[in-house]
């Protein structure tokens, strides 16, 4: 069950307690639970825009696309590459920038099949993403919030997953337990290359993210996975495009060319990097 426990007030960091359908801090700040069970812990003063993060349309497109399971191999690799000995009963996981909740939902189901019971929290800055996520899976504590200021006490989690997201390493380090793990999942050089070749006149050289390493963490495992999947309709192609940055970056001509496609074979090229929090 979603517990919404051990969270902190985003205004003053005081502990939040559950009072019926609200979370309250000792200074009188109150956060009501939404009908679907999530809680919004993103105070107005921390918002850079009125409706931050992914829009309702992007969330819907991503949900429809992910539900077709083209990215299920990513779930499998997350589980198989999880450092041995760290995936135990009771492990507390945060998906930071969880989107509409596909990965936490699938991970929960897969681990339940292995009789491993975990505590899952999903946080995203988009209320649309969290609304969709909270309808998908009632076993997760879903929070609207920002990676820049996580509304949880220090050392609250054993693992943080950040998939295609916006990591804030100082916050991740603060909220991880002493030997906590961080997983970054990102696209590799050939990701969706067939689509990018249609969208752009030329393909930029690939730049590795965080080439100097990540402050406060040491890299424990790096893995790349490549596979091919097929989209068999213009609608599916459109949905995939809507959930990537290419929808905004590509030229008009490129997008028009993609609209002519009815099927496409696409390369998924995904990078997985596991880090462990450095002691002291
Ligand atoms: C490319 S999507 C990936 C979503 C999900 N991890 C997935 O792979 O399906 C990036 C997500 O990051 C969220 N986001 C953007 N800025 C954020 C922030 N500062 N804190 C938390 N989430 C953020 C967006 O709303 C969006 O849902
Ligand atoms: Zn407060």
Can you lay out the helices and strands and say which pair or pack?
Blueprint: E1 17-19, E2 22-24, E3 30-32, E4 39-40, H1 56-67, H2 72-81, E5 92-96, H3 102-113, E6 119-124, H4 127-136, E7 141-144, E8 157-163, H5 169-175, E9 176-187, H6 193-199, E10 217-231, H7 234-242, H8 246-249, H9 252-259, E11 264-277
Helix pairs in contact: 1-7
The structure holds S-adenosylmethionine and zinc ion.
Zinc ion (ZN) binds next to loops.
Which properties best describe this structure?
binds zinc ion, S-adenosyl-L-methionine, binds S-adenosylmethionine, metal-binding, 280 residues, alpha/beta, Rossmann fold, methyltransferase, eight-stranded mixed beta sheet, three-stranded antiparallel beta sheet, 28% helix, Methyltransf_Superfamily
Commentary on this structure:
The protein has 280 residues and is an alpha/beta fold. It has one domain: Vaccinia Virus protein VP39 (Rossmann fold, 3-Layer(aba) Sandwich), CATH 3.40.50. The chain is built from 9 helices and 11 strands. The chain has helices spanning 56-67, 72-81, 102-113, 127-136, 169-175, 193-199, 234-242, 246-249, 252-259; strands spanning 17-19, 22-24, 30-32, 39-40, 92-96, 119-124, 141-144, 157-163, 176-187, 217-231, 264-277. The strands form 2 sheets. Strands 4-7-6-5-8-9-11-10 form an 8-stranded mixed β-sheet, with helices on both faces. The longest helix has 12 residues, at 56-67. The radius of gyration is 19 Å and the shape is globular. The chain starts with 16 loop residues before the first strand and ends with a strand. The structure holds S-adenosylmethionine and zinc ion. InterPro entries: Methyltransf_25, Methyltransf_Superfamily, RlmA_N, rRNA_m1G-MeTrfase_A_prd, SAM-dependent_MTases_sf.
């Amino acid at each position: 069950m979603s517990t919404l426990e051990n969270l902190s007030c985003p205004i003053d960091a005081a502990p939040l307690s559950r009072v019926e359908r609200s979370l309250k801090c000792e200074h009188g700040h109150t956060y009501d639970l939404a009908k679907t069970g999530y809680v919004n812990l993103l105070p107005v003063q921390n918002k850079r825009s009125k409706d931050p993060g992914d829009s309702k349309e992007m969330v819907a497109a991503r949900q429809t696309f992910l539900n077709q399971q083209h990215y299920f191999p990513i779930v499998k690799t997350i589980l198989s590459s999880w450092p041995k000995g760290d995936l135990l009963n009771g492990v507390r996981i945060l998906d930071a920038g969880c989107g509409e909740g596909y990965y936490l939902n699938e991970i929960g189901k897969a681990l339940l099949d292995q009789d491993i019971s975990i505590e899952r929290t999903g946080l995203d800055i988009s209320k649309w993403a969290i609304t969709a996520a909270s309808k998908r899976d009632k076993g997760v504590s879903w929070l609207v919030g920002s990676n820049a200021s996580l509304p949880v006490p220090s050392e609250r989690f054993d693992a943080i997953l950040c998939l295609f997201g916006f990591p804030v390493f100082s916050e991740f380090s603060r909220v991880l337990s002493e030997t906590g793990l961080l997983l970054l999942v990102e696209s590799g050089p050939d990701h969706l290359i067939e689509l990018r070749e249609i969208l752009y006149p030329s393909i930029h050289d690939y730049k590795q993210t965080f080439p100097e390493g990540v402050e406060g963490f040491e890299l424990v495992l790096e893995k790349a996975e490549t596979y091919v999947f097929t989209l068999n309709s213009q609608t599916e192609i459109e949905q995939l495009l809507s959930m990537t940055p290419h929808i905004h970056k590509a030229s008009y001509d490129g997008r028009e060319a993609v609209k002519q496609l009815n099927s496409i074979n696409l390369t998924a090229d995904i990078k997985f990097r596991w880090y462990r929090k450095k002691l002291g």
